Amino acid sequence: MKKILAGLLACLLVLGMVAFAETGDKEYDVVFIPKSVHEFYNLIKSGVDQAIADLAEEGIKINLTWSAADKADSVKQAEMLEAAIALKPDCIAIAVIDGEMCKDLMQQALDQGISVYGFDTDFPDSPRQGFVGAGMENQYKCGYDTATMMIEAIGDENCEVAILAGSPAAENHKRIVKGFEDCIAENYPNVKIVTKQADNDKVEEATNITESILSQYPNIRGIFGATSGDGLGASYAYESAIEAGKFEVGDVVIIDHTLTAEKKNERIPQGYLYGVLDAPPYVMGYYAIQMINAYLTNGTPYQDIYLTYEKVDASNLETFTNDYTDKAADLEYWH
Fold first, then answer.
1. How far is Cα of residue 89 from the mean position of the Cα atoms in its chain?
2. Which domains does the chain possess?
3. For 183-195, how does the pLDDT look when each residue is reduced to its tens digit (9 = 90+)?
4. pLDDT for the residue 9
5. How far apart are CA 189 and CA 186, in angstroms?
C-alpha cells in the first residue's frame, strides 16, 4: 500500500510539473524600437511595463529591450533593427520611420523565425504580422478633425492659423498635416494658413518657432501641432507672450495630440493649450505586449488594432482616459 501511495504521489508531482510548464514558466525576449527618445514613447513604454508586470503574475516573463535613438533618424533606426535581428529575440516591435529602409530588414527577421510587430506608425505593404496604433487612415483623420475642432473653437471662419509640422521625414506627421490642410481647403476657404514649419518633433524648436510666429503674425488665431510635443512647445511661447501683454488667454487656440500629465494638469486648465486629439499611447503599449504574448504563448493570430483619435478639452479632461479605455476593451481579441 505504501509503495502504491508513493507511486501515486510521484505521478501527481510529475503531472503537476507538466501542468505548470503548460500554463506558466514562459519566457520571451522582445525588442521594442520606437522612433526616438520622446515623451510620447515614454507613455507607450508605461503601458508596455504594466502589461509585462501583469503577465509576470501569470508566470510569463518578458525580457524587454527598449532600443531608442536620441532623435528620429531613419538610418540609425535601420541600424538598430539590424542589431536587434542579430540578438535573435522572439519578437521585434518597431515604430517605423521610413518603410523603404526597414521593409527588407523586417522580412529578413521574419525569415529567421522572429515575429515582427508594428506599433504607432505603419506604412503601405509592411511585412509586419500585427499592428496597434492609429493607422494611416486615422492619422489623416486626426489632422482633418483637428482643423474642424480648431475653427469651431476660434468661432471665426475668416482667420489666420499656422502649422507646426513635426519631423519632415515622418510619414505619420505628413499624413496628419495633410488631413489638416485638406479640411481647411475643403471647408474653410477664408481661413489662411500663414506658415507651415517643421520643428523636428522637438519641444524647444516648437517654442522658438512659435515665438517668431506670434511676433510676425499678431492676428494669428490658431496653431496646430502635428506631434505630441508641438502644441506643448507652442503653449510655452504663448504663455510668455501673454505675460508680456501681447496676447490674452483665449486669443490663440493651440491644439496638438496626446494627453500628457502636464497637458492635463497644467496647460489645458490654465488656458495655454486648448486641447488635443488623443489615441492614448499607454493603451498602445499595453495592447502591444498582450498581442505579442497571445501570439507567442497560444499561437493566437495577430490582428490589427486601429485606435481612433478622440477630442479632449477642458470639458472632458477628467473623464477622457477612463471613457476611452472602457470603449477600447471591445478590441481585446486575445481574451
1. 23
2. 26-134+281-331 (3.40.50.2300), 137-278 (3.40.50.2300)
3. 999 999 999 999 9
4. 34
5. 7
